[in-house]
Design a protein that fits this description.
By secondary structure, the chain is α/β, with parallel strands linked by helices. About 40% of the residues lie in helices and about 20% in strands. The longest helix has 21 residues.
Amino acid sequence: MIGSVATTSVAIAQPYPNKPIRIVIPNAPGGGTDVVARMISESLQADLGQSILIENKPGAGGAVAAADVAKSPADGYTLLMAAAGFVIAPAVLPKAGYDPVKDFVGVRQLAIVPLIIVTRSDSKLENINDLLELARKDGDKVTFASFGNATPAHLAGEAINRLGKVKMTHIPYTGGMKALPDILSGNVTIGILDAVSTLPLVQQGKLKALAVTGPKRLPVLPNMPTLVESGIAFDAVGWHAVFVPAGTPMPIVNRLNTAFTKAMDQPKVIERIINGGSIPIEKGGTPSQWTAQYEKETKQWAEIAKAVNAKLE
């Protein structure tokens, strides 16, 4: 009996982490969240002393990955690195399989991600007004690509439909990189994607940028107007952030917060994120601060989804 108690005590006392950590990404490889995860994984490994295993699980606007992590043990070895679609999916998918507020705890916000509205470089579209005129003429033949159902990009497109009084057809993909070939070829009219996926091609002249969804113009594209400046009163951005299943011990949550903060404070990481068109959250804040913020955003995005009547089966 004494030996059994001693063995149990040793097991409980094992420091965290003592085995590889899995980070689940709700998008295909090459998308914005995936790029950020791989960018900081080396720093995380060095700080935590364990291998970081990145697993891509696209589908249902991020719901597939989130539902998987929600059912995982709350022990700090399965993390979700998600975009803002994480808090939107339950509002538009009746069977999302998780509740972002009840089933998760926030670890840290990593970056704010404005969305860019792009079209192929030889398109006759020069601005949002041109897009609206085309949509009024050709109706649902005008299409917009997003990186998935129930994502900020999807809702931004629906907001343009509603506020611009047009009916563009939504074409969802399982990640920004998956949508690019069809945008470049002209198979879809426009793409509403994260800056990480699109900015390099805009800078190379392979894509044409029409507007950005954020409240301000991007420093790397100062001549590109916002949607508000273009006459569409819609202002929203995405983000990248880290979550763990509800019930994860707070010492573990705090340890992860510290590790991600160290990774995000590296000058080379900050520079790459800025050059990629996103805004790094360098100081980060506490897990409780981020949890309170994303819980508030969950309600806000649900209101937007209801306003644009975004419901998916």
